[in-house]
Amino acid sequence: MSIHTLYVNRADDPEAAALRRRLRAGGHSRLKGLTIERVYRLEGEVDPQALWPLFVNPVFETGGAASALESADGPIIEIGYQRAVTDPETPSILDGACALGVVNLEWARLGHRYQFRGIAATEARRIAEEELYNPVVQEIIPPDRVWDSLRPTGTPEPVRRISLARLDDAGLSRASEENSWYAPLCQMQTLRDYERERGRPFTDAEVEIVVQSWSDHCYHTTWKSLGLFKKLMDATRQVNHPRVVSVFKDNAGGMLLTDDWVVTIKGETHNFPSAIATFGGVATKHGGVIRDTLGFGKGGFPIGGSTLMGTMDPRLPEEDVPPGALHPGHIVRESVRATAYYCNPMGIPMMYPVYRAHPGYPKCLALGHSLGLIPREHALKDPPQPGDAVLLLGGRTGRDGLHGATASSAGMTGETARKEAAAVQIGHPIIERKFMEAIPRLRDAGCLRALTDLGAGGISCAAGEMGERTGVALDLDRVPLKDQSLSAWEILLSESQERMLAAIPPERLDEAREILRRHDVEATIIGHFTDTRRYQAAWRGEPVVDLEMSFLWGCCPIEVAEIRAPTRNEVVGWLGSWVVPGSRRTRANHLTTQLPNHPTTQLALARQVLAHYHCCDQSPAGFQFDSTVQGRTVIGPYGGKTGRMPTHAFVAAPIRGERVGVASTVAYNPFYGDVDPAGLARLALVEAVSRAVAVGADPEAITLCDNFYTPKATPEVNWALAQMVETIADLSVRLGMPFISGKDSSSGTFRSSDGRTVDVPPTFVVATMARVPDVARVVTKELKRPGNRLVLLGRLDPERLGGSVYLDLQGERGTLLHDFGQEWAAGLKQTWARLHALTQQEENPVRAAAAIGEGGLFARLFEMAYGGGLGARVDLDALGPGPLEGRLFAEAVGTFLVEVEAAADPEALFAGLEYRVIGEVTAEPALEIGGERVALAELEAVWEAPFREVAGA
Amino acid sequence: MPDRKSQIRNRKSTIAVLYAPGINCHEETAFAIDHAGGRGEVVALFDLLEGRRCLEDYAGLVIPGGFSYGDHLAAGRVLAVHLIARLSEALRAFVAAGRPVLGICNGDQVLMETGLLPNGTVGERAGALTQNRSARFESRWVRLRVQETGSFWTEGLEGSLLRVPVAHGEGRVVHTADARVTPAFLYVDADGEPTEAYPDNPAGSPGGVAGVVDPSGLVLGMMPHPERALLPAHGSTDGLALFRNLVCYGD
Predict the structure, then answer these.
(1) CB-count exposure of residue A265 (10 Å: 0-12, 13-18, 19+)
(2) Which of A323, A319, A278 is nearest to A751 (CA)?
């Protein structure tokens, strides 16, 4: 078989230039030049000239049978996919060739040749290994490789029999560790007893299925043992909200938006993969949570997405990064690249990109949300019936992501980072985009009985869950592979991305396949649902799995969890996570060193507040994510006159031609949990809701999504978790706002290779999904007209600086959050109701509104003025007594800064509520506070610098 | 049920919005046509290739934004290969019959890769949209100045300023020396002057070129998204005029 090679070069290549800049900034300062050459290898009796239109546009590309790179100019390294793996571009190449009438093209591969100028071959090699490829699926192609064929080849391992029957506890623990099962001893004992009862050893596939299904990631053993799920679900049941249609059971939660349409929300973390291989981890974080929307009911359509990243400070000196952890700057930059790589092709608008830092995040937080839309009639699944086909659709199955569920449930060490690199999946958004288009067609044509996404545990978990009440029989030889060397257990466990599993009634199969064909979605029947209540699978003619569903889903032992309240350590926070090298450590809420209580000093500090990582302009990341696709966006992540003012909210009009809207907001603060986990939980909820109400969401139609990230379970961690969950369960009942979806990860512990342990701070994120009655009445945040009044609506206690950005700048956390306990709910409800009622008036006197949070009143004042291209004058006395820094920087969550029409009487608007008129809007773009003036342009420069530096933009 | 003849008659005034794998702006683009008073219909590439739909039954063609075929090999390349290899006669006949073609974002990239832009020569390429100077995807609101083109596309809009979003990674126009490039829109700065400076010109496109028409004036390609600046709720309705021009064309 003949193999042709075609080398393609681009005249001017910003990608190569950007990579060179990135490498130089990353320490390869001698790198003088970088060229990227594409190399296509084509197998078959073809004339490469006939394929020219596909590979070369002569306007900016040149192609030839010989490389244009001279080896004397510098070392050349070629990166390509491994022999056993199919290139993601191969189907497109074969497809394009076919269109051009070239039918003899048998296979194609694409490689990238990098030529480095100014550095030695060893340094080039190191760059390639560290930056340019994923060793799970790619490799460095040796220059002298002889290609006999390009097609993927490989031989799978045979099925292994595993006997646990004679092992003692030590032997069981060892087996668990040696096989990377990460199963606790009690689960291993249950498995052993099951084997003794059955009288035959397990196959490798059987053990793998069981430990995956029982992992904390899939089974939430920590939460179940603490009874936390039940608490939240009981609270939601008690709220009994008339708009809620689906809670906790499905892949996402649903709320009625109109009589005919349901909106859905889901948030999911993907922390472990993102911490060890950020690009792949973050890309598949998005892919996974989007599939949760697609797999809601009989198939939802995603209409919004988010990205939230919590890392250590990305500007940390290299030597302060715990050994074995990736540098946080690298994590942030790679995550931005991955979010753009995945979300933009999906065509789903970005709702809120959020980047936060905390010293406890060597194992980072990587959270994504997905908002969806589905007709009410399709919002609930039907149970699969015996005889229904198990249809696997989307991407092919490969080696990526093995052991993802169990590995992510375990702690992370410098060692796991290497050992479990295979746990990171590779994402290809084009595949997912194609079935995102096809699934609503399948749904509307009545082809789907049920549908779920393949995530943690791959086919093994999805088929097991869907077939729990019936039974399922799989034929693994039918699963289309992109890696020919996969054995049976690997096929079952693979977490290859972009796959869904559907239950299709036999009489709808033909129609389903035709719809999928027309959408270019590969789909294969890999088995059927049975009435055996057994989980069965065969491979190469022999049974490899035969388990009772009752064992798989009914016998997972849950250890009783111990709870113990720790004593708060003022130096390291509740859980030892807050350790700032070299910081002043104090018990005082205020600073040890009292700063002069004078506006001049405070304005100098204000600049630092705006330059804090949490308050600075994060648009250099956010502008890389499409926020207007789908034509539904009313308020995107940024707004105002320059388009750079953070809005802290997303509003869309999801139903074309109608004015009803959906708002979504998020609150994520990694500092509050160091002060008080219960306070963190309360503030996150109140802040997220306040942000939604500020833009015009109806407080009577707000639903909530929770995400927890805590260290590996200890009695103290369990206490913090219980504190958080009890607080929000009770608060959600008091407020009448139900939690309808959520996810927890109890694996936030990092052990560095020098033996130190770093725990994440208690992390709790709330996202809202709320109804906006009329998108024409949304309230935007930028100031509108000089002369209008500025009103602070809600409480402001200048003594409560705990957990603030302001104290963080001094290396302190403080002791008092701006938090007023559960009784606070009544007052908040009143404020929210009044603000909402005003925004729904024909002539809304509230011209702009923002919820106070990080950076306090001052940060909002700056953003609102900057957004409007106007200024503001604030009377310090009107802010009441108390320390000046508290008046300006206390993070008065639940309080609003609003701009009110000059002609309106504040007393008439806000009677009965706590409010104060604090100043007015001015024409000149400057802030005047207590007689001190500062130009916005000066503040803007301070505010926009830090993230540019981080993002390398 | 209307019979097939009347269906085709209806389509004669219907504008086809092309869907191909990876396209992701077809819904809102069809809606924009409806909103401008016309009738938009999403037409799948496979239906054209397999004969279930015919290009000649439509009054106009819009290739919307997205990442067709994953933008593998180059932006818009694989979809363009499908069009020139299997629909070039239909495309030529479509434009020869005086029917308008619009490419938005990925659609613009596709039209460049087919050769329909800038020279109006299907199968002979004279231009391309290459990677942004920043090497990043850019999602921003931009200001455009509408140029005199003599084409119906810009009729009544010449000299006006439009505020619309862009969202692309490859929007930098390159072309051969003898290409006939007729700019329809230029990126302008806060003073309304054409600019090559980032970020007012997010792609770093030479001369500020954000969109071009072909020599016949029937084919328009633009990187910005007029369908995302359609309703008051979008914050700008500046994109509507283009769809009005499309819908009214030939009346």
Answers:
(1) buried
(2) A323
Dig out the tokens for A134 from the structure.
Answer: 């994923």
Which residue in this structure is represented by tokens 């909210």?
A649
Interface list for A 358-377 with B (CB within 8 A): none
The yes-or-no verdict on residue A407 having pLDDT over 80 is no
A518 touches B at CB < 8 Å? yes
In this complex, the residue of B66, B77, B139 whose CB is nearest that of residue A628 is B139
Domains identified in chain B, total number: 1
More confident residue, A410 or A885: A885
B92 Cα distance to chain centroid? 17
Q: What's the average pLDDT block by block, 10 residues per block, for chain B (251 residues)? A: 54 88 98 96 96 95 97 95 95 96 98 97 96 96 97 96 98 96 97 96 97 97 98 97 93 69
ipTM: 0.96
pTM over 0.90? The answer is yes
Cα distances (angstroms) measured from residue B36 to each of A241, A631, A776, B32, B104: 39, 15, 20, 6, 17
pLDDT digits (tens, 9 = 90+) for A726-739: 999 999 999 999 99
3-state secondary structure of B126: coil
- Window B:150-189, CB contacts with A under 8 Å: 165, 167, 169, 174-176
Phi, psi of A703, rounded to the nearest 5 degrees: -120, 160
CB contact under 8 A, A631 and B175: no
Strands (E), A505-567: 523-529, 534-539, 542-548
Contact A630 B231 (CB under 8 A): no
The shortest CB-CB distance from B228 to any of A99, A350, A628 is to A628
The CATH number of whichever domain residue B60 belongs to comes to: 3.40.50.880
Domain that holds residue B72: 4-248
Task: Identify the three-state secondary structure at position A675.
Answer: helix
Active site residues of B: 105, 225, 227
Q: Which residues pair with A413 in a beta bridge?
A: A751
Neighbouring C-alpha atoms within 13 Å toward the C-beta of A183: 28
DSSP label at A931? T
